[in-house]
Amino acid sequence: MSSKSIVFLSILFFSLMIGKVSGSFMVDPEPPIYWLPGGQDRPSIARGTFSFFAVWEDEREEYRHIYGTRISTDGEVLDTCGILISRKTYSQRYPAIAFGYTSADGDNYFVVWCDSASLKGARVKGNEVIDTLGITIMNEDVYSPRIAYDGSSRYMVVWATLDGDIKGKTVSIDGNVSTLFTICAETGTQGSPNISFNGTNFFVVWVDNRGGYWEIYGARVTPDGTVLDVGGIKLVNATGSRSNPRVGYCNGYWLCVWEDTREGDKDIYGTRVDGDGNVLDDPSILISQASAYDELYPAVASDGNKFIVTYIENYGYKDVVNALVQTDGTVVSHHRSTNSLIISRIYTDVAFCNNVYFALWKHTESYRMGIVGSRIDEDGVFLDGWYCKNVGITATIQRRPDCAFGGDSMLVV
Fold it and tell me: Which helix H or strand E contains 15, and what residues bound it?
């Protein structure tokens, strides 16, 4: 071996031993490299024209930051170390993502998150973060931001305030932020908003305890921020309480889904709402299968013909379940993922692109945790066992390197 090779290998070995492998020199970062401390949390996924884009909270460093990756419709994680979307001194939380449009340079998305005492956003084109310092949307603490695109030129961002109201702003594709508008400021507390666009108006849903118990309300909002249903529309009339609403759109109807305790345990219920704001299902539709266990964390998407509702069934190892729902409100089938040695599965999200869904969730297994996912076909069947790919799981640090020289190259592990 030449003296230059010896010197290079010595430097390489020393640099690996002292701590993290920096982003400027990463050796074979393909997952799974996730057997060490740190974790990933709260995934959100959006479809693009030809692939998906997932974002999450990432704890690979001292604080939580926002990372993301593109995922192909074949289930391949395209950015295996993750794309850094935001890294500040303090933690970033509650990311959400929406697809906007496709340009010559790739798919365009907008990501929002809570950043210390502010709400931030960033445009992402392909795998490039355009707004590396982040766009300030609101200079105060907020909760649970969500986002959707109007199909033309702007995104709508909604959130819950510390005072318990639902508010919003729009952000143009050029990054210009509108003035603040209020969606609901009734008595009591409003929270956990979600949003979907039907080609004409947005529909914003939230939990609301103005009557002393938690219910689901919604309101149509025009793309310029005008609230059409002032005070909100009550979507449910039933005993018990409700939480964690999500909403999607398909062929003339929004489908709002939520966790519901009317039968004691938590089940997943839903209702359709038409473009005029009429609630079409009263009593609500039971979407999850009846069981003695809680059903939690619903997410909803559409393939253009029907809805899929993905949720967690708190049974044994906590299955992930898909329910297919027709636009007439009929629940046609349920499909479960295979079991695994999972301690916990939470925080689902799902999107559809090019004849396949991709569902994400956070899992915790023994001493590792992070974001995993699976492809789902249009019949609701999981295509990748209990999960397909480690989407966001990564090691906090890398240790105990070794290397071998092969004449014209080396292998570092």
Answer: helix 3-17
Say if residues 268 and 256 touch (Cβ distance below 8 Å): no
CB 184, CB 134: distance < 8 Å = no
Mean pLDDT, range 39-54, rounded to an integer: 94
Please state, in angstroms and as integers, the Cα–Cα distance from residue 306 to each residue in 18, 180, 194, 266, 326, following that order. Answer: 53, 34, 19, 24, 5
Q: Write out pLDDT tens, residues 295-327.
A: 999 999 999 999 999 999 886 557 899 999 999
Residues 6+ apart with CB under 8 A from 182: 165, 166, 167, 227
Element (H, E) at 11: helix 3-17
359 three-class SS: strand
Read off the pTM. Answer: 0.86
Sign of CA dihedral 280, 313, 361, 351: negative
Structural domains for the chain: 3-412 (2.120.10.70)
| 364 vs 368: CA distance, rounded Å | 6
What is the helix (H) or strand (E) element at residue 375, kind and residue range? Answer: strand 368-376
